[in-house]
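Support case: user asked for a sample of complex input and structure output to validate their parser. Sending the pair below.
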Amino acid sequence: MAEEEYGEAVLAIVDLVPEGRATTYGLIAEVLHEQLGRGGPRNVAAVMAGHGSLVTWWRVVRADGTLPAHLADEARQAYLGEGTPLRPTGAVDLAKAVWLPPDIHSSTP
DNA sequence: GTTATGACTATGG
DNA sequence: GCCATAGCCATAA
């Protein structure tokens, strides 16, 4: 159970990512692991695969700023429209565009 | 209960 | 710089 809760949490964080920025599966997974006690980049990806269409999925990239082949093409257009810093390789320049997810473990009273 | 799979990550060649 | 392997976590069959 609680798959929805995990999914909601993932979608919520993704929805919080500001324009022109991006975050990684690992970071989201790490924060969720603090909140829900379970975590894994694979699971975050699994949620995105199922509910990704409901959020700005292109703002979530892999640890090196790249994205799977079937998404890179569409994500690229989104990045151009939002002004997300990209690398010559077509990947997101995480050095500038990285966005740290809200660490509720320390921010929330 | 066991096996297979995945929008992942880190390390080694 | 790119390709292959190992490890990890949860879901689905």
